[in-house]
Amino acid sequence: MNIAIVGTGYVGLVSGACFAEMGVNVFCVDVNAEKIEGLKNGIIPIYEPGLTTIVQRNYEADRLHFTTDLPSVLNDMDMVFIAVGTPSDETGNADLSAVFEVAKTIADNLSRYILIVTKSTVPVGTTYKVKELIRNQLNERGLFDLEFDVASNPEFLKEGAAVDDFMSPDRVVVGVETERAKELMSKLYRPFLLNNFRVIFMDILSSEMTKYASNAMLATRISFMNDIANLCEQVGADVNMVRRGMGSDSRIGKKFLYPGCGYGGSCFPKDIRALIKVAENVGYEMNVLKAVEEVNNRQKTILFRKFNAYFQGNIKGKTAAVWGLSFKPETDDMRDAPSLTLIRSLLDAGVNVRAYDPAAMKEAKRYLGDSIYYASDIYDAANDADALIVPTEWKEFRLPNWGILRKIMNNYLVVDGRNIYNREELESYGFEYRGIGQK
Ligand code: UDX
Known about the structure:
The protein is an alpha/beta fold.
């Protein structure tokens, strides 16, 4: 089986490498020549555990290929996946120009049957728009009888666990409208079926909607828990206990109930905005999701507010150590990271920032330039600091040497944005502890 995957971002590269790992012959295509050259030389543009190994292995085995030239491989393919970016435009709508650009290239060069699959997260109805664009273009070329199919196959992988998620997904969602497309997709996913998951076939519009609805539900759980956490603080309850009590109800479940300093990343913020817009465009108002977004925006300011409140607003000239910059652990992704909201507020208030992250320092520099000090490790960041603030729960932050920190810091405030520390332990070292949703 031969497939092309257009777009070598997270979704495209991980999907390409994982399909190749299952024996499929995969061509990863990108317009960015530098990226493609890099990939040929083993340079993986993203930090993702396990990805480098399978990219190299399959590239060497000649099952995974990299090219900038879609037309040259297109007519040897059984299917082509569109996995290019769909960022928010200024109005919150998903910007689909890259998706339609790929569709146009396919239509301009196609000469035999192919299945075209949208894998990027796209607003409901986009796959049909791709189909219409390609049909019109083929007709213009006089190719009225040239058949093709479209399908929707949204990706649910999480950054930092992308390879595992792809290889052992809870389910695979596929939207199709013909038997031929269904058969091809069944064949492609058959090797993964050994892992006991289900392929759920449905119509194309429902498949596109499933992706948005899933992300929206997960984000809703997080904002709901952040609201509960804030209320816990006010009434003297402990959200850690409340979360455990709630999560053990099998109807609720344990996952995605962790309060913190807000969700970030490339998916939740963008997809929530896009779904609100999808609804607006058909005259419907997504009230719950609007609140989810509002609560999240406020939650991203919570670390700064706790720091400011502790020093009663006298923070100009103080120094804050910030541990963790990426929007979550095991990634270097800084998109919509809560750390950025925190650091910008600190800098605006005249606070010096000493930051450390195990993977995202280079990426962070693109956002923050030289406005902060980039520390070599957690202790270097904490040197002479008045407070330690933790927006991201990297494993290596979990058991620091509090004795050393007590000696090298100037003041002893710890603001724990992910509830990874124990209040009693920190207090025994003489620290002032501020968590999320605790007394
Ligand atoms: C998410 C979805 O999980 C994935 O299915 C989809 O394909 C893309 O979007 P990702 O953005 O990689 O994946 O990260 P995820 O692990 O879901 O975390 C998103 C954000 O929510 C992070 O900022 C994280 O810190 C936050 N989060 C997550 C919480 O604040 N509390 C939780 O309980 C879980």
